[in-house]
Amino acid sequence: MFRVIQDHIGKPLDFRVWNSMTQSVRECSITPSTWSGDGVLGLVIKYDDLDFDSTPPSIHVLDIFPNSPSSKAGLQAFDDYLLGTPEVVFVGLEEFDDVILNAPPPIRIFVYNRRSCTIRTIDLAPDCKWGGPGSIGCDVACGILHRIPTETRPVRYVSNGKASSTYTPGNCV
Q1: Where is the PDZ GRASP-type domain (predicted)?
Q2: What is d(CA 145, CA 109) in angstroms, rounded to the nearest whole number?
Q3: Quick check: pTM over 0.90?
């Protein structure tokens, strides 16, 4: 992938991008170029071979225990879906457990909220001594009964509590 991107500096490069909000794939064209930031795209690309037909990747937050690490991170029961970290997509509970058990805290996690139709990041700090069950203090589930609802409203990306940009499903950002 690195070689292909480098070979396309100044030339359009076509991508197929999975949209977890609409549960669809869209075509997107990006022209790699040198700029003031890192890399030549201005984003991080991670290739994953996922089976989206069975269950789209996400972890549904079901319950938050008071004063837990999840509560302190601002997770919201029933409305939040944990998508992954900058390095790992949560395809199932195995990936989620691996991150919670092995990543150094705090762990940056991308969270979709179905009620506000936003994606935000949280910093979660697992702690087995917080005073309740588990290291993060919440109940989660995945599978067919816990899929991210298909969304047709514009999705807002939130940074530090403020909407940083708006994305309308179907458009390439």
Answers
A1: 57-145
A2: 22
A3: no
